[in-house]
Amino acid sequence: MSNSGRKKPPLVAERRFPKKTNAAKKPAVKKRAPARRTAGKRKPQRGIIRSVLYGMFGWLFKIIWGFGWRMGLACALILGLSVGYVSFTLPPVEQLFDGRARGSVTLLDAQRKVFAWRGDQFGGAVTASSVSPHLKNAILATEDKRFYKHFGLSPRGIASAVRINLREGRGPLSGHGGSTLTQQTAKLICLGTPFDPTKWKDEAAYEADCRQGSLWRKAKEAVYSMAMEVKYTKNEILTVYINRAFLGAGSRGFEAASQRYFGKSASEVQPNEAAMLAGLLVAPTRYAPTNNLERSQDRAATVVRLMEEQGYLSSAVARDAQANPATLSKAAQAKAGGYFADWVMTTGPEFFTRNTTEDVIIRTTLDQRVQRAAEAAMKTVFEAKVRKGSKAQAAIVIMSADGAVRAMVGGRQTKVSGAFNRATMAQRQPGSSFKPFVYGAALDVGRSPLDMIKDEPYCINVPGSGEYCPKNYDKKFHGNVTLTEALRQSYNIPAVKLAEEVGLDVVRKVATDFGIGSHMAPGPALALGASEVSLLELTGAYAGILNGGSSVSPYGLVELKLLGNNEPLMTATGGIGERVINQEAAEELTWMMHKVVAEGTGKRAALADRDAAGKTGTSQAAKDAWFIGFTADYVAGVWIGYDDNTPLTGVTGSGLPAEIWHEAMKLAHEGLPVRVLPMRAPDPNEGKPLIVDTATPRSGQTRKSIDKLLEGLFGTSGGTSKQVKERARQEEENRNGR
Predict the structure, then answer these.
(1) For residues 701 and 288, what is the distance between their CA atoms, to the nearest angstrom?
(2) DSSP sequence for 461-507
(3) Spans of the chain below 70 pLDDT
């Protein structure tokens, strides 16, 4: 059979070797692949020490982490419980508005207008919603611009404060505190701890303790602040702050400060005023406008810029506030009433004045128009007549005939509070201004202003002191003079002789009964004012002469009552008392003292439009110079001297004191109707005394006519007694002798 039609299989070589089993197979030798470069990814081999250290650190980390989160959880739980507990103990917010330990005293003048404050003033509770929006914004811009965003603490503020303190070289907690407004409020209420007088010496110590910056105190403050945030709303916290903040000059709260400085409610303040009030928060005493208005205005300008930067004020309003800074009200300019207010505070009971826990209203006798007149007179005369830089001091008291004090200046610096009051505290020798009491005593026992007395060398043997020989100021002797002439020219020898004649005890009693309570010299020098008195005492004694011879107790307090009560707790503490000399003697003495001003040593005090009476005084060695006098409306006393008793140079009672008196009384009488003095001219005929008309004003021409009439009567002989004739002869001889 042929194969031609078949496809032939391919020719292949036969297998030379039989298949071997796997067991018999020899392992194939594999070529070693080249090593890959993995050095950067390979885990490094650790040594034994390194492994141990890593293990220890890992173990410590686990322990610390485990302890830390547990401790943090525990602290958070304690903090939460503390905040919750403190918030639960917080009182209703209304009880936190007024936390003063002391009360306040508001002083009203004779027209019932406020002129001074004392103690811690609280103008009444206001709220964050009721105050002026400008004031609220000024507080936030100055103290805490994120107040409505934080929870009572500001970590950002604290970190910033620490950084600033360290940069300025202080401790981290010294200086800037980074306190939020809530924290400041917590400090103001002393973390809820009330003032305890048994624990703290005074309120200053209490407040210093409340503001201490220890770490523990800061922690308590933080807890208390967060508790307040839990208990109260933001506006309630701000309300507490607005009512509790101290703002200088005894003002507690913005309402009191607004009334104190601007005479208006905190709801009415404008941007410039709001900026000034908010500016006080950084340092109330330093920036108080009553201490330094310019400094306070500069601080307010900074607050205005902050308010503008934070969007509280438009550029136009900010420019207006900068161009027109806030100024003080008239009452604030009076610097809390000065010397008069200080004196009134000493005349009332201490528990209602200096240490009151109540809010007290005191109505006084002060006439602010007269007060301004006294201050202006002193300033004018000292600027014109006293060398610049002189340390000489002066004091003025002006009162009515019943002792109601209308003005008081206790020193050349009139805008003061709590200063040494030379009108009430200084005890100085009155010199010849004491002589009216000698002549008053003589007139009261029957002497006449026209009685003669001889001015001649005169000596007295004083037991225990030896011989005393008074001298006149001009070192001369003037022979026979009338009592009126002796007083008019202020001769010393006649005054001493007259005091000896009347009796030193009588003179001493008259002066004491008129109100001079100071100790009086026992010897004849008493007549020349060797005893020390205060200006207030001496002026009050002269008021007794003006009112017809009755004693006077100077007073400034008219009525004292508690705030909110209509019934007064006490009324006037002074006024007219018992009669000292008879009215005729008082009116004759007034006539004699009128001669002092019209013709004698007090000419510089004379007023152009009305009668005045008074007496000059210069103490031994010219250490004190006085002029005390009166019109029908007011009694005024002026003293000049040095606090250290340095003798005055070229100054006597007839000089600067009389000029200050003239200027003060001229201003005080502006606009007042003319009234004549209640004086009585003596009758040389010893009949019914010629009484000067006290109901209608007398012109200068009328006064001269009366004087001529007296001279004519004195010179006639018809119907006169031998005594009058003798007086006329002696007067004529004396006149011719001069």
Answers:
(1) 56
(2) EETTTEEE----TTS---EEEEHHHHHHTT-HHHHHHHHHHH-HHHH
(3) 1-46, 101, 157-162, 164-178, 213, 334-336, 685-738
Nearest to 284 by CA among 120, 510, 410: 120
Q: Say whether 326 sits in a helix, a strand or coil.
A: coil
Q: Which amino acid is at 595?
A: K
DSSP secondary structure code for residue 530 in this structure: -
CA dihedral 65, 67, 72, 75 (to 10 degrees): -170
Residues near 265 by Cβ (< 8 Å), separated by ≥ 6? 123, 126, 255, 258, 259
pLDDT at 721: 35
Dist CA 481 CA 487 (whole Å): 10
Q: What is the pLDDT of residue 614?
A: 97
Helix (H) / strand (E) element for 645: namely none
d(CA 300, CA 593): 56
| Consecutive H or E run containing 232 | none
CA 90 – CA 96 distance, rounded (Å): 10
Q: Are 579 and 593 in contact (CB under 8 A)?
A: no
604: its two tokens: 């510089």
pLDDT at position 500, please? 94
Taken in order 405, 113, 263, 670, the sign of the CA dihedral is: negative
Could you say which DSSP state residue 92 is in?
P
Q: What is the pLDDT of residue 168?
A: 64
CA distance 580 to 576: 11
* Cα 249–chain centre separation: 7
Check residue 44 and give its pLDDT.
57
Burial of 737 (0-12, 13-18, 19+ CB in 10 A): exposed
What angle is formed at CA 460 by the lines to CA 479 and CA 483, rounded to 5 degrees?
A: 35
414, 378 in Cβ contact below 8 A?
A: yes
Give CA–CA dist 663/201, Å, rounded: 47
Q: Contacts from 508-512 at CB under 8 Å and sequence distance 24+?
A: 510/437, 510/440, 510/441, 510/444, 510/580, 510/581, 511/434, 511/437, 511/541
The alpha helices in 348-389, defined as continuous H runs, are 368-385
Maximum separation of any 2 CA atoms in the chain, in Å: 219
Q: Which residues of 399-420 are buried (b: 16+ CB within 10 A; e: fewer)?
A: bbbbbbbbbbbbbbebebbeee
Give the number of other CB atoms < 10 A from CB of residue 88.
Answer: 10
Which amino acid would we find at residue 672?
L
**What is the rounded CA–CA span in Å between residue 82 and residue 78?**
6
pLDDT confidence of residue 347: 87
Residues 248/288, Cβ–Cβ less than 8 Å: yes
Q: Compute the distance between CA of residue 531 and CA of residue 542 in angstroms, rounded to an integer.
A: 16
Provide the CA 341 distance to its chain's centre, in angstroms: 9
Instruction: Provide, for the chain, the percentages of residues in helix, strand and coil under a 3-state DSSP scheme, each rounded to the nearest 5.
Output: 45, 10, 45
